[in-house]
Amino acid sequence: MQDIICPNCKKVFKVDEAGFADILKQVRDHKFEEELQERLNIAEKEKESAVKLAESKLKNTLQEELAKKDKELSELKAEKDRSLAEQLAKKESEIAEMKSKIDKAEVEKKLTVTEAVKKIEKERDDLANNLKSKETEKQLLEKSLLEKYSADLKTKDDIIKMKDDEIALRKDMKLKLSTKMVGETLEQHCETEFNKLRATAFQRAYFEKDNDSKTGSKGDYIYRETDEAGNEIISIMFEMKNEGDETATKKRNEDFLRELDKDRTEKKCEFAVLVSLLEAENELYNTGIVDVAHKYTKMYVVRPQFFIPIITLLRNAAMNSLKYKAELALMRAQNIDVTNFEGQLNDFRESFGRNFRLASEKFKTAIDSIDKSIEQLQKTKENLLRSEDNLRLANNKADDLTIKKLTRGNPTMKAKFEELPDTDKTI
Predict the structure, then answer these.
(1) Is residue 304 within 8 Å of 190, Cβ to Cβ?
(2) For residues 73 and 65, what is the distance between their CA atoms, to the nearest angstrom?
(3) Are 91 and 73 in contact (CB under 8 A)?
């Protein structure tokens, strides 16, 4: 709410933000109209002044021109060498030209006035658009601020509610510790909470006191769970720590982590959980479940109300891990089958390769024999061809044989052949 003072009666009255924004808008709208009207009046006056000035200049110019023309007409009348008709025609042409100039000047004057009016109208529209844009920006800003502060208020309310719930939870825990758990220990409380769900949620689970102190130390409880085949799914070593308000020396959760890790290792448990009411004002541990694996692997510190949830979370994770382990085992078995198949395939390849080599060697021997036979036959063919050539030559020689050739250089045989009858000389 804001105080507004009336300028007339000086009375003070209160106006909320919406009313103040409405009054401000009215003042702005009135101011805008006044400025717009003032600018339009100025533009109208400027337009009238421009028109009057243009008319005055044009009138003076025309008067000067007319005076000049009248003087020239007088001079023309005095001139006897020129024709009166020609002079009149020329003057009429000039008068028409002057009228055209006057008309053109009138048009230019109207265009000037129109452009001036358009400019003023554009400025008015721009001012109106700017005002509208500013109003829209103002509304958007108001809406954004309202949403922002509403969200902040809601977040603040949620945080307050969470704090109230946490305070109520702490009071309830103290009440329980001071009433129900009087005479009981935190260990008994956790065992009771577990037994409530043993028959329904943990049918194959083992949750008992750790009574084995052969190694010199022992935890409080051991949780183990197996599947239907007896394979262990998960194992957890639990340690419970409670401290009353009247305790003089306050312990810290970190004081018990090393011993808990040692007990977990000796009892071969996968996880270790410290259920603690120590450091009641520590915001870190009051979140409920704190992972301290950066100091000791697979170890958690929880408040008592998260005793069952931590078992459930770790158990579900182990179930998923068990499924992956089963899939991995199946893959390994499949890999073994593939390996056996590859071994058999390699044996087959080696046997086939050996038989192929033997067959190749036999085949090569047969090919070599065939090649040798072909080579021998080729030689025989060549010999036969050469024999044919010799026979052909011998036959040609025989066909060319005559007595004259036989007795050439042999007078004795020549004389003997000459003694023979003519029929015998045809050889």
Answers:
(1) yes
(2) 12
(3) yes
β-strand partners of 300: 273, 291
Determine contact, residues 5/11, Cβ cutoff 8 Å.
yes
What are the phi and psi torsion angles at 221 (to 5°)?
Answer: -140, 150
Cβ atoms of 15 and 26 closer than 8 Å: no
Say if residues 236 and 223 touch (Cβ distance below 8 Å): yes
Range scoring the smallest mean pLDDT among 107-121, 182-196, 352-366, 413-427: 413-427
Angle at 156 (CA atoms; ends 150, 158), nearest 5 degrees: 105
Whole-angstrom CA distances from 87 to 65, 67, 77 are 17, 17, 9
H or E segment at 3? Answer: strand 2-5
Neighbours of 31 (CB within 10 A): 11
Return d(Cα 135, Cα 139) in angstroms, integer: 6
- Supply 177's token pair: 């510790």
Mean pLDDT score, 14-27: 69
Instruction: Specify burial of residue 77 (Cβ count, 10 A radius: 0-12, 13-18, 19+).
Output: exposed
- Residue appearing with tokens 């009313």: 19
Residue 240 phi, psi dihedral angles, 5° rounding: -110, 130
Query: Are 225 and 236 spatial neighbours (Cβ–Cβ below 8 Å)?
Result: no
The per-residue pLDDT for 244 is 61
pLDDT in tens, 64-98: 888 887 787 777 777 766 677 776 777 778 888 88
At residue 347, what is the residue type?
Answer: D
Question: pLDDT at position 413, please?
Answer: 67
- Rg over CA atoms, the chain: 64
Instruction: Please state the pTM of the whole predicted model.
Output: 0.38
Measured distance CA(71)–CA(78) in Å, rounded: 11
Partnered with residue 226 across adjacent β-strands are: 232
pLDDT tens string 289-321: 999 999 999 999 999 989 999 999 999 888 887
Kind plus residue range of the DSSP H or E element containing 289? strand 289-291
Tokens of 286: 């009051």
Instruction: For Cα atoms 139, 145, 150, give the angle at the middle one, nearest 5 degrees.
Output: 125
Lowest mean pLDDT among 57-61, 178-182, 259-263, 400-404: 178-182
pLDDT over 80 (residue 381): no
In the chain, the N- to C-terminal Cα span, in Å, equals 164
